[in-house]
Amino acid sequence: MGIHMTQQRYDKAIALIDAANNEDPNQETSNGTNWPKELLYSYRMSDMLERYASDADDAIKLAVRAQHIQRWKSPRSDYPMDRKGYYLWRTGLYKFHADTVANLLMVVGYDREFIERVKQIVGKKSLKTNPEVQLLEDIAGLVFIEHYLVDFVTKHPEYTEEKWLDIIRKVWKKMSNRAHHFVRARHIKIPETLDTLIKKAVIE
User: Fold this and answer.
1) E-strand stretches of the chain
2) Is-contact 66 42, C-beta < 8 A?
3) Comparing C-alpha atoms, which of 8, 44, 7, 37 is closest to residue 20?
4) pTM of the model
5) What is the rounded CA–CA span in Å between residue 169 and residue 156?
6) Could you tell me the residue ranges of all domains in the chain?
7) Rg of the chain on CA atoms, in Å
8) pLDDT tens-digit readout, 54-88
9) What are 99-144's pLDDT values in tens digits?
C-alpha cells in the first residue's frame, strides 16, 4: 500500500475514534471552551505523545488516541463499590476499549495483525514485557499530572498530604525512568499549586 493510502486509512481511523468520543455526554471546560470529556482527553493524550515520542508509529498513535474511547459507556457504578469491584471495572474497561477500537480499525481496513497489536496496547496486555504498553502508561501518567491532578485534588479536600503523596507515588511507579526524566526536566507543565507536593513526592 502506498504512503498516500496508508495516511488516508490512518486519518479515517482517527476520525472514527474522534467521532466516537465526541458522543460523550459529559462536558469539560478548557480555555473557555466546552468539550466532550473523552474527546478532550484523547487530544491531550495525542499531544503528549507528540511531545514525548514524536517518532511513534501509527499503531501507537491510534492506541493512545483510543485509550479512553467511549469510557462513559462502562461506568464505575456498574460494579460493586469496593476494591474487588474497582479491579473488575478496570479489567472490563481495558477489554471494552480494546474491542471498541478494534471494530473501528476493521471498518477502515487494517489487517488482523495490526489490529491485534493496537488491542494489546489499549488492553494493557503484558505491561512488564511490552514496551509499547509501557509507552501508553507513560503518556497516561504524564497527562494525569499535567491536566487532571489539580481537579482531582479539588474534588477531595478530605485527603491528607500523606494520601496525596501516596497517590502521586503510585502514578510515578507506573511510569518508566524515561518518563521520570521527562517530568524532572520540566517538559510537562506542573501545576503551580501542586509543585511543592509533587517535588516532595517524587522529584527531590
Assistant:
1) 27-30, 33-36
2) yes
3) 37
4) 0.93
5) 17
6) 1-125, 129-204
7) 17
8) 999 999 999 999 999 999 999 999 999 999 999 99
9) 999 999 999 999 999 999 999 999 998 877 899 999 999 999 999 9
